[in-house]
Amino acid sequence: MHHVVVVLEDSTTLKLPENHMKNSYLVRVNFVVCQLFALLTACWFRLYLHPSKTSPFIRHVVATLLGFYLALFCFGWYALHFLVQSGLTYGIMIFTGVEHMHRYCFVVALGYLTLCQITRVYVFDYGMYSADFTGPMMVITQKITSLAFEIHDGEKMPSLLEYLSYNCNFMGILAGPTCSYNDYIAFIEGTCYQRKRLESNGKENGKCKQSDPSPKRDVILKLGTCALCLLVYLTFYRVCPVERIIDDPYFTSQPFFLRVLYLYLSMLSLRPKYYFVWTLADAIHNAAGFGFSGYSKDGTPQWDLISNLRILNIELATSFKTFLDNWNIQTALWLKRVCYERCPYHPTAATFLLSAMWHGVYPGYYFTFITGISVTLAARAVRHNVRQHFLGSSTLKLFYDVITWASTQIAICYTVVPFVVLAVGPSLRFYWSCYFYLHLACVLLVVALPVKRRTSRENVQEKQSPSRSQPADQSIHSSTDNNCNQKEKTT
Question: Where exactly are the transmembrane stretches of this chain (predicted)?
Answer without folding.
Answer: 25-49, 61-81, 101-123, 219-239, 275-295, 364-382, 402-424, 430-451
